[in-house]
Amino acid sequence: MPLPGSFDRYDAQLTTPGLVILEMVAADRADAARQLASRLRSEGRIEDLDGFLADVAAREHQLATGLPGGIGLPHARSEHVTQPSIAVGVTKYGHTLDFGALDGPAHVVLLVATPARSFSEHLDVLATIARSLSKEGFRESLRRANDPDIISELVNSALLYSDP
């Protein structure tokens, strides 16, 4: 029996090893979003890279997407997204990215992409992943994992089994 708020209704996982960038080095949050969105594009999860990035940038201008504990959570609902997805970047040691969090820069970036028509789905994904990211153990696991398979499993499991 699926848990309330679980994401097993998706035909495909929200993230895959191919959507993970280890030792990411980016000039700024826009560069990080471009690198992660390029992964989404290469896996056929977005149709128009520049169009999607414009939607992400518009959302970033509304409010900072940095979370406590070294997390960047850029996100957008976009007509260019073909399926709900999360691309994950773990920065190279010594590199961080400013996503506007009060406690400092990000070491882990999760780019959330959902189709424009999926307002409630978008909020569900954001709320569930934010709940998991509020736990120090989960953030540490993402930071320390050195394998895209493990990172994608951590993120997908967090979305499937998060406490409502």
Describe the structure.
Strands 1, 2, 3, 4, 5 and 6 form a six-stranded mixed sheet that branches. This protein is α/β, with parallel strands linked by helices and about 160 residues long. It has one domain: 3-Layer(aba) Sandwich (Mannitol-specific EII, Chain A). α1 (about 30-40) runs antiparallel to α2 (about 50-60). It has helices at about 30-40, 50-60, 120-135, 135-145, 150-160, and strands spanning about 20-25, 65, 70, 75-80, 85-90, 110-115. The protein is built from five helices and six strands. The longest helix has 15 residues, at about 120-135.
Characteristics:
164 residues, alpha/beta, Mannitol-specific EII, Chain A, 6-stranded mixed β-sheet, 6 strands, 40% helix, 17% strand, disordered N terminus
In terms of topology, how is this protein built?
Layout: E1 20-24, H1 29-42, H2 49-62, E2 66-67, E3 71-72, E4 75-78, E5 85-91, E6 108-115, H3 119-133, H4 136-144, H5 148-161
Helix pairs in contact: 1-2
The CATH superfamily is identified as Mannitol-specific EII, Chain A
- How is the biggest beta sheet arranged? 6 strands, mixed
Helix content: 40-55%
Structural class: alpha/beta
Q: Can you tell me the CATH class?
A: Alpha Beta
Tally of helical segments: 5
Computed over alpha carbons, the radius of gyration is 14 Å
CATH topology: Mannitol-specific EII, Chain A
Question: How much is the average pLDDT?
Answer: 90
DSSP strand content: 15-25%
